[in-house]
Design a protein that fits this description.
homotetramer; about 190 residues; Arc Repressor Mutant, subunit A; 2 domains; DNA-binding; TetR-like_HI_0893_C (chains A, B, C, D); Tet_transcr_reg_TetR-rel_C_sf (chains A, B, C, D); transcription cis-regulatory region binding (chains A, B, C, D); DNA-binding (chains A, B, C, D); HTH_TetR (chains A, B, C, D)
Chain lengths: ~190, ~190, ~190, ~190
DNA sequence: AATGAATGAGAATTCATTCAT
DNA sequence: AATGAATGAATTCTCATTCAT
């Protein structure tokens, strides 16, 4: 099902993720990437047409890995509220466990380095979580907002909280994380 | 109260904001900045010690301009709910009216180019909105969450929605904007 | 008599000729040659020791192919003037029909990439046309110039005219071609 | 009248001419040029947008210098035949005295590195010698060929002879040079 | 304050060539 | 004979920064 990624290509991906997270997108030369990945300059250009192409391809890969991981835990048969909280909390901890990936993604997603074509590719990865929210709307569990709006608000909350946790780790304990999930749930559900 | 910014310095700020938004932080050389600003290379280094210093200083300036603008509209004497919505909507439209500034800020805030010292400076700009939320908690209007958590969730929602609007402008109409504000309000208030 | 050229070697020759003509000697990497020839990198180095060796060998081949073609039409028994014109015109049209070969040869012959050894090899191909001019001198048809001088002036005129035809195709019609041949004939013959 | 060429730009021109003549257009890296010229890498790119731009600009400069030099000696009031021989011989010795320039020009003019725009610029330098040949035709001294054809045949003969002289210096003595000039004159004049 | 030519280390990328298969 | 991934030195070009004027 999954594409087999050649070991060198994977090493380049890993090195790029780490280095962009620590040095910044603006400050990660190819020379550093090849050194960290332990490959030759030529090998990088064997697998990727250019630095931009590498970044774009890695962006797609990182985004879909995260999507896959978050969604794989999703239990559509549990009570809806329970499923929602488990999704939110799972996603939070998954993101939190991959700080480099998140840093990479955030740096890219705000930069013109990511092409429109790449963005279009990435959209498709939202499919399964979209279904979950559609189901919630259909069953009357949550407000009938546009799926992309829900997605944006939930994802935005999680990412914001992780950034806060990065700056103030002592503040964001399990209780706060739960409060943030509740914030989203309360924002989503129909009040009568 | 405010420092007078010399015209050339302002031109450099403006040029940098525009260029980082359109070319990316990773792809905006000083040579382009000086050209766009219409100043000499020497002038840039007269006003700023280095490129990093320029970016950091502009980051502080842009952040506080936004903060000032959003808060200046805040009416602490109106009914709380009304004030909240007016704050949220005002903030949304202000951000939306400054896409370059927002793009610049988002690119910087996820990059190691912004120093810890700069981040510390920026924190102080939250003061007045913090007071607004503290007042809401004290009066029992909203849940007693940590101020920084509230701030993060609200700011995160607004920024997320603006990014969505950038990608899908036709989707994010006034109704959607209001729905997002309601999402935040419902998430904040105490349910009984 | 002729060596059989293996198909892959021929494909490499053809690709090199085409590419050097269109991209320039300075801008024709081996990677492009192998792609255009449809062979592997290893195959190129099986047939040729190096890029320089490939260019030099192709130069010899191209030069002698042209020489052979031009001379094969030469009729030593016809009236001398008639033979001369038929030689000149034949040569012109043959060169004109192989623009890539001519472009390749001209680029090489002015570049230090062609070794002295290669140049020495190529000289031998002039043998038969040399005999034709020697005969003309012996019979008193043309001036007693050194064979190499005659050769140079005639060949130079033909090549110059072809270059002109490349830049201004509409100018160089059959009449002009004949005028150029007459120019050479009039320059060669003894005036009394 | 003439543009003042800044000393560094002139040094880059000189170095490029020398190096392309000795190493070949395909084998003259910028690093060698900057070293030979005694300037920094940045300086080269301050004066020229790219290597191609440098080559093209130098081509125009070299061509027009040669044109100017050859034509400056031209005496339109002398008897026509005498003027012609003096032009031819002058041109020959001028070219012969600038072997690097000639080698550079020949390598470029057969290579796609020279753009159509550059070729168009260069054509304008032929103006004055064109007038000389037009005058000869009008006065009935030479055959009524197209000016560009005459130009091509004469220039081609001179260049061919210089190439021969390069390969066989002992062969091309003053007598041979005169013979070649006579070849051209005899080819040009009307026979009755 | 201001200029802009100049620097040179370093960036992205290319390319002739090799070698394990 | 043939392949094509891999190499890494070399190449073109960039860019933050300086400094004489």
């Amino acid at each position: 099902m999954k594409k087999e990624i050649p070991p060198k290509k994977q090493a380049i991906f890993d090195a790029t993720l780490t280095l962009v997270a620590s040095h910044g997108l603006h400050n990660t030369p190819m020379s550093l990437i090849k050194k960290e990945a332990g490959v030759s300059a030529g090998a990088v250009y064997h697998y990727f047409e250019s630095k931009e192409a590498l970044i774009n391809e890695l962006y797609v890969t990182a985004k879909s890995e995260i999507s896959d991981a978050v969604i794989s835990e999703l239990d559509l048969d549990a009570p809806y509220e329970e499923s929602f909280f488990s999704l939110w909390i799972n996603a939070y901890y998954y993101f939190a466990s991959k700080p480099d990936a998140l840093s990479f993604i955030e740096q890219c997603s705000n930069s013109p380095i990511i092409t429109e074509q790449t963005k279009a590719q990435v959209v498709t990865t939202y499919q399964k979580s979209a279904e979950f929210f559609e189901q919630g709307i259909a069953q009357g569990n949550i407000k009938p907002l546009h799926i992309d709006v829900i997605h944006t608000l939930i994802y935005g909350s999680i990412v914001s909280l992780i950034k806060l946790a990065k700056d103030q780790p002592e503040l964001v304990n399990d209780e706060v994380i739960e409060q943030a999930a509740i914030f989203c749930w309360d924002g989503l559900i129909q009040l009568n």
